[in-house]
């Protein structure tokens, strides 16, 4: 076999140089680095050497997790701070306490709760509730108030009857002549007749009657109907001798719109109505009773005041057993009549006869005649002689 010699060109020599350089660099590497698995080098690393290896950044120290310390429960201190003081116990009612009978629907039930709070400190007043939340004057087949109220009056023997009803009456009415649709003239005529009949049950029994109007509600159509029904209640109740209590302003704003939050009886801003805009909160019940409380106290009389004692011949203090007085030499005189004319030393009142005419000329006459006023009396403010005396002394 014949070997042919070839001339090695420039390219060949360069390839040899690169090969030798690569081999030398590989040999000079430390054994530890040679054993490492490295990435293939590029042309710049072959010509200018490898880049300096940076020391790896130390890993961040692990975050210390704070373990919760064991907290001792201070039951005594927490209870003393969070526990509200108990309200005072209501005053016990006396045996002959006067009864306030409250009847009606769910609004009357809230009114009764507010009145119980209002008269809690009055031992002479008892609030008796006889309400039916779903009742009204339209559905007599469900609950007939005109039949039940006389029985309640005989049983309870109340001193005052309070009626609050009508929130459930916005519906069709069934009569002997047929069905009457709500908001028609025939419906309002029949409804007014029923209101008058129920009010006469109390007035005919000689019991004072307070008829409480409906408050505003969130539904606008319900509020508009409540205004119309309140006019019927006022007209019917006052006709038979009862008293109508208007509570409308307490549950609307200055523009007459329904409010959920308003002033309570102390002027503080509180929530008066429930989330449905119909029912009353505890503060709303108390505010509703606030409008009725004044008239109820007037009708109940002295029994509403726990500290009021009526004086009569049986409990008057003994005034004859007073201790002896330390005053001595007391001169007693007869009582003097303020209209006695002898008080001024005469037998006639002042002005009964004209004063005597003076003969001395008046200051006006002296000014006209002499052109000068007479000297002022000594000591008067216009006496200039005092000024001259003071200047002379200085």
Automatic annotation (TrEMBL):
Q: Which residues lie within the region annotated Disordered?
A: 48-92, 354-394
Biased region (Low complexity) positions are 73-84
Identify the CDD domains for this entry.
SGNH_hydrolase_peri2
- An example Gene Ontology molecular-function term: hydrolase activity, acting on ester bonds
Q: Where is the composition biased (Basic residues)?
A: 63-72
The record's listing under Pfam families reads: DUF459
Q: What is this protein called?
A: DUF459 domain-containing protein
Q: What is the lineage of its organism?
A: Bacteria, Pseudomonadati, Pseudomonadota, Alphaproteobacteria, Hyphomicrobiales
